[in-house]
Design goal:
The complex is a heterodimer of chains A (199) and B (340).
Chain A (H helix, E strand, L loop, with lengths): L1 H7 L8 H11 L3 H23 L2 H17 L11 H19 L20 H20 L2 H12 L4 H8 L3 H21 L7
Helix pairs in contact in A: 1-6, 2-3, 3-4, 3-5, 4-5, 6-9, 7-9, 8-9
Chain B lengths: L5 H11 L5 H13 L1 H19 L9 H12 L12 H18 L16 H18 L13 H12 L4 H20 L7 E4 L2 E4 H23 L8 H13 L1 H7 L8 E7 L4 E6 L11 E6 H8 L10 E5 L1 H10 L7
Helix pairs in contact in B: 1-2, 1-3, 2-3, 5-8, 5-9, 6-7, 6-8, 6-9, 9-10, 10-12
The chains are: A mainly alpha (199), B alpha+beta (340).
């Protein structure tokens, strides 16, 4: 069953008719399109922001900012240059990192994964996302420790590679290449399993 | 010349994770613009990063949904799905421009130089559309290319072609979208609901101008389809009806402009098919008589193609009751206001 869902993710090869159409509907100002995008990606955007910032209130602000930014300038997203997930994720991460760098002094609090009622967006897309996230999770687990640790510090910890080097007590050049190599390996896993569009 | 920079290449992973300083980010971005291999790698690594982020997905509090929608509405009014049912004219405009935009996505690079119906290449036709839409937007106060002051269709198109011919099609499209967006903003402002607009030496109401632009957009979209060897497409029935209505109610003026007016005579035009209708009009600047001197029946899509000069009037399939010479004049004058 997992395999079937994975193969359906092959839509990523002939990408995103849905993304194109939805983008046009957004350009036209159609509220229904924004609703669909929210349903599809709210958990992704919010969960990512929350993991990076560690504060629910701020994670909501970042999420709102991401969706409203997309609503305001839907043409800034170019479906030919990457998936909508990547675009929204890049934006969400950047805003989240901006937030914690602004609030440098504040200590992050641990957040319990509160069990909240899930919304029910497009089931197929959600299934693909869940399966892919699971694969990425296990791919992360098989990364060499030093690469995984560097990626987690940078991506979820919002640290620059210099700070990563400092925390891990390694040269900056080593930090840079661990981040790149680790990410490349995850990208490779995504490509060989035909899940998750890369370009 | 090699564009590779190993130092910057080494930064790409950190950059994709937003783990570089601001000045390094600027350097990487400049690099990405000139080094395609680096841009490809960043796209690939960003995709990986986003999926790493997806491992943390967590449903937000339910009330965030409404907060986001309210904030969105406050920033930019929603149209379709809210006010559009009350505003069929804007809906037609957004539908037809949206259809063209989607069509442009499907044009392969090697088809850009194919010749279209009016002699322009596919690329030049998109440039022509940008030229016209931006002319319309400029009339509404939203100037996109201030250096280009030409207003006549031919000279403005030529100036735009000169300017955009050697640039990527994406640039032209971006300009066209800006203009469409300016029109949308103007049309959604309630203050303009009853606005009259003077454009290309003609007077339009807001509604008729939106329909005229939709009509031209559809016509050129079909020109592109024809050049690509794709089947032609008709707008939805509701759009067709409004386009036909604008074209039929302009007939008295069209007949005068074409020198084919018959003041005092009256025609009934019956357009069949989805979106069709029935009109009684004077054949010039005169009163509408009670009984028509001619009844012309035609398919609504054929009529619209004739009015946009994509169908020669002589071969417009029609049924005529009454004076056939009057019907010939109607068909011949239907395209009096067609531009290109």
């Amino acid at each position: 069953m997992t395999e079937d869902v994975g193969r359906q993710a092959g839509r990523d090869v002939r990408p995103s008719q849905w993304e194109r159409t939805t983008r046009h509907r957004l350009i036209a100002g159609e509220e229904g399109a924004l609703n669909e995008i929210y349903d599809q990606f709210a958990s992704f955007v919010y969960g990512l922001a929350l993991r990076v910032i560690g504060d629910a209130r701020a994670a909501e602000d970042v999420s709102q900012d991401v969706f409203v930014t997309f609503w305001e300038r839907p043409d800034a997203f170019d479906p030919d240059r990457g998936s909508l997930r990547t675009w929204l994720g890049t934006l969400a991460h950047r805003r989240a990192v901006d937030h914690i760098r602004r609030e440098e002094a504040r200590r992050r609090r641990a957040i319990k994964d509160a069990a909240r009622p899930e919304t029910t967006p497009d089931v197929e897309e959600m299934a693909i996302a869940l399966v892919t996230a699971e694969r990425v999770r296990s791919a992360l687990a098989t990364l060499p420790d030093d690469q995984r640790r560097a990626i987690q510090l940078a991506y979820f910890g919002g640290k620059t590679y210099r700070q990563v080097a400092e925390v891990l007590g390694i040269p900056e050049g080593t930090a840079k290449s661990r981040l790149r190599l680790g990410l490349r390996r995850i990208a490779g896993v995504l490509e060989t399993e035909t899940v998750g569009r890369s370009e | 010349m090699s564009t590779d920079d190993p130092m910057l290449d080494e930064l790409l992973g950190a950059y994709a994770l937003d783990a570089v300083d601001a000045d390094e980010a600027v350097a990487v971005e400049a690099y990405l613009a000139r080094a395609p291999h680096a841009a490809d790698e960043v796209a690939r690594l960003r995709n990986a990063a986003a999926w790493i982020g997806a491992t943390e997905a967590l449903a937000p509090p339910p009330e965030l949904h409404d907060t986001v929608l309210e904030a969105a509405r406050a920033r930019r009014p929603t149209t379709l799905g809210r006010s559009a049912p009350d505003d069929p004219f804007l809906a037609v405009y957004l539908t037809e421009t949206g259809r063209l935009d989607a069509l442009i996505d499907t044009v392969p690079d090697d088809a850009l130089d194919r010749t279209t119906f009016n002699g322009l290449t596919v690329r030049e036709l998109v440039i022509h559309l940008a030229a016209m839409e931006s002319s319309f937007a400029a009339t509404l106060g939203a100037t996109t290319d201030p250096e280009i002051v030409e207003t006549a269709v031919d000279t403005r198109t030529a100036a735009f072609i000169e300017r955009y011919r050697d640039r990527p099609l994406a640039d032209t499209r971006a300009r066209w979208r800006e203009a469409v967006d300016a029109v949308r903003r103007w049309a959604t402002d309630p203050a303009n609901a009853d606005a009259g607009v003077q454009w290309l030496a003609l007077h339009f109401t807001r509604d008729s101008l939106l329909i005229a632009r939709s009509f031209e957009t559809w016509t050129h979209a079909d020109d592109i389809r024809r050049a690509l060897g794709h089947p032609l497409e008709s707008p939805p029935a509701g759009s067709l009806r409004l386009m036909a209505d604008v074209s039929v109610t302009a007939m008295p003026a069209a007949l005068e402009v074409a020198g084919r007016a018959h003041p005092g005579k009256t025609a009934r035009i019956v357009l069949t098919g989805d979106g069709g209708g029935d009109w009684l009009i004077p054949l010039g600047f005169s009163e509408t008589g009670e009984t028509p001197d001619v009844v012309l029946t035609a398919d609504i899509v054929d009529w619209c193609r004739c009015a946009s000069e994509r169908l020669v009037p002589g071969v417009l399939p029609r049924r005529v009751e009454g004076d056939p010479a009057l019907a010939d004049d109607l068909a011949a004058a239907s395209s009096a206001f067609a531009t290109l």
